[in-house]
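Quick one - inputs below.
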Amino acid sequence: MANRPERETSRANKPQLSLHVPEPEYRPGSEEVDFSGIEIPEAGAQPRPDEACDPSETVGLCTDLIRVLGDDNKAHGPWDPKLDPDTLREMLHHFSLVRAFDERMFRGQRQGKTSFYMKCTGEEATSISTAMALQPDDMVFPSYRQQGVLIARGYPLIEMINQIYSNSGDKLKGRQLPIMYSSREHSFFSISGNLATQVPQAVGWAMASAIKNDSRIATSWVGEGSTAEGDFHAACTFASVYNAPVIINLINNQWAISSFSGFAGGERATFASRAIGYGLAGLRVDGNDPLACYAAERWAANRARTNSGPTLIEFFTYRAEGHSTSDDPSGYRSANEREAWPLGDPVARLKNHLIELGEWDEDRQAEMDRNAAEKVKKDTKEAEKNGILGHGMHQPFHTMFEDVFDEEPWHLREQNEESQREREKKYPDGVPH
Ligand SMILES: Cc1ncc(C[n+]2csc(CCOP(=O)(O)OP(=O)(O)O)c2C)c(N)n1
Ligand SMILES: [Mg+2]
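Output:
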């Protein structure tokens, strides 16, 4: 009793508490967008520790920004991956293809051929350049904006379009939201709409790979907004505790639909610095610098592959377009942000680098872009032969209940039979399919 503090009777003299609600700097109508507060270090100025280093040696890199391509379009410093011109042109070709693909699929949605599409404009390097730094059979657990990974892995565009149209050629039989691809052959795990679930899955897969003494590593991609989910933090803990051979790619494109990065904790600390508390190696990378993206991913892959530890990489970038075809960003952010973004456009930066090397020119670029658009157009037409959204039911109805379990359990069989009975009632003149 004696130690109990006296009960307060009045709070009148106490400071009033207040809640901080983050607010983005610019909203629609902001004419002057000024990103000069973002610190952009010199390309080539960041140290490159040994891939097998202790995570503590990467602490400085969690607040720095790894950059290779300078304003002079040349590659600089210890992170220069020294890729040969053919590899750089291959990367540029994937960039060109993904941009043409995004354009056409976006238009397809507007024409009613599919219900949904998501572009990755401005973020191409975070999926294409990183995928190129991995082995083709490393397992990837992507989010929904990594179509570049599939394109870099040579997945047929026509299969992607079939899935987007949910048509009779769709290998996923219309069961997934458009763009939520899956390909076992391309070591590409099924995309889930439940944000961040892919991160613990990647860590778990990596742990299993280690348990089996396999040599394949796992990688995951997660948006900065999604890191506010508990799954992300559980995944970091498991990755660190078991030294899982995994890379967590955190794509900080500043926006999570209409919420800015401040709502996921971006105001107080960089996203890469989450790594420090978990004992993970952490890197913060210019996500619009294709060479830096490649180099960082390769560093982390080599580290994982040699049991040296997992890595969290923040790719600092900007979502140049709307969140999806269901979104209109002019309702919540300034239209001038895209132009003002200080890290430029990844496609233009790679193109200019190749030109600077004397290995490319504008005419060849125009031809590459034309060919990419032609290829996408041709494959779209081909896929359309398998049907588009709303033009009939492209998959037999009963398939809805199949393939989840090896053997259909009794309760699904019951539901399947009931659904057939309902349909017979609804369509007395003959059930479609
Ligand atoms: C668990 C969960 N919460 C919310 C949503 C709705 N949602 C879909 S995308 C999205 C924004 C995610 O933003 P971010 O992680 O930054 O990825 P980005 O879209 O920028 O690539 C939200 C809130 C969801 N799909 N799943
Ligand atoms: Mg985001």
